[in-house]
Amino acid sequence: MSLVDETSRTPVTAADVEHAVRLSVTALRAGLAADWGVQAGTLEWDCWETVEHLSDDLFAYAVQLGPAQPPLDGEVPYLWEAKRPGGPRNAVHADRSAGPAGLLQTLEASGALLTAMVRTTSPEVRAYHGYGVSDPEGFGAMGIVETLLHTHDVAEGLGLAWTPPAGLCDRVLARLFRDVPDDPDRWRVLLWVSGRADLPGRARPEKWRWYGEPVG
């Protein structure tokens, strides 16, 4: 395992958030004609619910940075609720009549909100997250991790190809995970650290989390 060297770490940027969401939407558009009611990978949610949850994640990270005095002890109090028992608790719910194309439009819009907030918010700003009070870079990195992993889940359910850039994976690993394997396949490492894949010679984590606190 290797601890992150902050002096050599490449920061996560708003452009990275924008890029991750664009790649996700492009990949998922290949499945517009598929059945989005099928299970998303190993999750308990279906593909529609998972993208809806991802859109909600990006929205939630954006609005957490929004108030003049962002909260340090809780979330901005939107109403998060599930549409069914066991479903994701979201503030953002897509109109089902708009179909998968409309669902992806909500993903694009939420991604644009987070991109804008990461780009325009002072790096000195801090806001609450359950995994540690964080800064704009941290919220951007969290949004990217959610995007990469949940796109993987949905792509697995819909039978689509999905392999994000190694550099993007490496930047979010360095920002949010305190120590990670040196394996050169950075996407595989991100899947492993989130309990979604195996690495040779390493047990798959049963529990996982990231660390949102500012670094450096």
TrEMBL record:
Organism superkingdom: Bacteria
Protein name: Mycothiol-dependent maleylpyruvate isomerase metal-binding domain-containing protein
